[in-house]
Amino acid sequence: MPTSFIRTASIAIACLIGMITKSQALYNSAVGLQGAQYSAAAYCLYEDVGNWACGPACNANRDLTYVWRVKNPSKASFMYAGYSPSQDQIVVSFRGTNGLDYANWVTNSDSRTKTYPYGGNVIQVSRDIRAKYGADKKFFVTGHSLGGALATLAALDIKRQLGLGANEITLYTYGQPRVGDEGMANHIMRELANYIRVTHYDDTVAHVPPFVSGYKHGGFEVWYKSERHDGYYTECSNYAGQSENGQCSNSLWFKTGITAHLSYVGIPISDNCYRKQPSNTLAEANITEDIVYELVPPIQQVVSIEEAFLN
């Protein structure tokens, strides 16, 4: 039997179980590494990010320029945006939970519907950068943990308000929690064609709030299934109107890992800076296993969105 026939048949079978999809054309491990470093830079000191001199996270993508920063003190949140000449794209990155930052963990654990915390600021920054470098520039949006949830909402907002086409915006998230119910997940998958959701081994944050509570992930999942970052990953499709794919991280019986959440694609993602942004509380601390074990169990909803956001 011809080898080409066997290969074609194998791919067809794999497609039927949802493990080989067009996401294979979307995901690139080099881009995954770039995105992780952009996400890591959001944890660095505000001033250092503005100068794009924050340490390893900035050095990995040296040419980012025209960097804008936005803080939301009441939510203890932070994002930055800039332009990369080598990648010819506008980069938007959101910080995840900052150590013991109380306001951030309140956002994580509050189950009430709340307004997207950045609103017009992200859109204005995006418009300003695009006006300077060209209206044809595409967007790369990213974030880790809670930052991944915010990045998802931002990508939807940027696409809608700037009138972008499906292939003009790319979203890579790392260890993001679920951001909404099935309706929200379906909306995300219809709107964002280039949405890669990277998970790592048994990272527990990627599985909260629990699926049984009515929450659902969107996006194509790329699961790095080794705790030690051996480079091997599995891709799993997710489709609007269907249950979450069970072939990637959902295939693990126990998903309680914290160490896996603290690093992605070999990067200590919340601790890859010369200087980190301090917590807004009296205690300044890196994300550690003890902290996350204490605070993750009460999480009911990481971020939600008002119905008006989708209109």
UniProtKB/TrEMBL annotation:
<dbReference type="Pfam" id="PF01764">
    <property type="entry name" value="Lipase_3"/>
</dbReference>
<feature type="domain" description="Fungal lipase-type">
    <location>
        <begin position="132"/>
        <end position="211"/>
    </location>
</feature>
<dbReference type="GO" id="GO:0006629">
    <property type="term" value="P:lipid metabolic process"/>
</dbReference>
<keyword id="KW-0732">Signal</keyword>
<dbReference type="InterPro" id="IPR051218">
    <property type="entry name" value="Sec_MonoDiacylglyc_Lipase"/>
</dbReference>
<protein>
    <recommendedName>
        <fullName>Fungal lipase-type domain-containing protein</fullName>
    </recommendedName>
</protein>
<dbReference type="InterPro" id="IPR029058">
    <property type="entry name" value="AB_hydrolase_fold"/>
</dbReference>
<feature type="signal peptide">
    <location>
        <begin position="1"/>
        <end position="25"/>
    </location>
</feature>
<dbReference type="InterPro" id="IPR002921">
    <property type="entry name" value="Fungal_lipase-type"/>
</dbReference>
